[in-house]
Amino acid sequence: MNITNASIIFEQGVLGENLFLTLTIGAVIKALLILLIGLVFAKILKRYLINLSRSTKYVWIVNEDTASTLHNLIIVISVVYSFDALGILSYEVLGTSLSNLLTAFLVFYFSYLLAKKSKDYWIMRTPQQRLPEVQLKAKLFYYILVILAFFVSLNIAGFTGRVTTLLAAAGITGIVLGFASQTVVANFVSGIFMYFDKPLKIGDPVEVGGYSGIVHDIRILSTRIRTWDGLLVRIPNEKLFNSDIKNLQKYPARRVDIIVTIAYKEDIQKAINLIKRMLDEMPYVLAEPEPAVFVNNLGDNGVQIAVRAWAPSEKWFDVRTQILQRIKEMLEREGIEIPFPQRVNWFAEELKVRIEGKEI
Asked: What per-residue string of b and e applies to 99-133 under the rule 16 or more CB within 10 Å gives b?
């Protein structure tokens, strides 16, 4: 038995008799049944969600607020269709019934409330160390749910076919809008890919797109970076996704690479031993991987010694500056020369120099 046949039953025999004007007994019974079924279903669903919220780990979406929101949505929609059964909301507006319009609006509004409450609840219950990642997830969930609710509401209102026809008939305007929105769509899709790829998160120091700084915020369409000199740079997600991203703090440890040059006349092994001893005394230089100090090259001005030491990523800059400062102070204290650049100038003809009035 389909819905049409079920509706005909309420119009036959005694049920089809008028109570007031065009209002029939069947219409009243139908409205009461719709309202009763809605009330019972809303109550059962609310109780089920509340019980589920006590055992599920997805409490950010399954909680008392969610249960109350869905409970209220079902009741209000039941009231709307009850009025529609009575003929009160059966008027045609914009090619569809008034009840469908109200239902579509209610579905979108309550879905928006559900998405917003779930997003806020998710963020509120998240520990501080996981907050940047969860903020991105919550925003993604919010936008996806709102977009889905929008299209579902269009379908409920009966506008899906009309909207498609309108867009198809837009012609050149539609093409222009398509090109204009192409970047938006590309940024949106890139933002989703960035979420699953996870090359960076809020708070990470990065180098990307010619900029270097701290990731300030990650949004659906763009990512914001606070540069080291305090500027805010907005990078579209499409450009970010197609760029080489250098995450300076993705892993817990990072290597410090320094080249030290000493004069050829100095004792190389002594300088290496002094640098190694100095690295062993620094608390943030990791013992594993072990620091490495070795002759890297015989340069134009002196012997180049490579210093490689691992440090915690968040302390990398501090460790690097301390190593440079301590090596300079230690070599000066030990009398080991750090040579200046030396140049030999050759002249094609012999030079004559005049000293105190004499020419040499």
From this structure: bbbbbbebbbebbeebbebbbebbeeebeeeeebb
Tokens of 241: 């996704």
Is the four-CA dihedral 14, 15, 17, 19 of positive or negative sign?
positive
Could you report the per-residue pLDDT of 204-253, keeping only the tens digit for each? Answer: 899 988 889 998 888 778 888 999 998 999 988 888 888 888 888 888 89
The burial of 275, by beta-carbon neighbours within 10 Å (0-12 exposed, 13-18 middle, 19 or more buried), is given as buried
CA 113-117-118 angle, 5° bins:
115
Helix (H/G/I), strand (E/B), else coil: 314: helix
CA distance 275 to 172: 71
Band (pLDDT 50/70/90 cuts) for residue 306 is: very high
Residue burial 59-77, b: 16+ Cβ < 10 Å; e: rest: bbbbbebbbebbbebbbbb
pLDDT category, 269, cuts 50, 70, 90? very high
Shortest CA distance to 108 belongs to which of 50, 144, 151?
A: 151
Q: Are 248 and 316 in contact (CB under 8 A)?
A: yes
> Do residues 140 and 220 make contact, with C-beta atoms less than 8 angstroms apart?
yes
Assigned token pair, 300? 């134009």
Note if the pTM is more than 0.85. Answer: no
Burial 228-262 (b: 16+ CB within 10 A, else e): eeeeebebbbbbbbeeebebbbbeeebebeeebbb
Structure tokens at 159: 């506008």
What are the tens digits of pLDDT across the range 248-267? 888 889 999 999 999 999 99
Tokens of 203: 């708070």
Higher pLDDT, 170 or 283: 283
For position 245, what pLDDT does the model report? 87
Structure tokens at 134: 């969860």
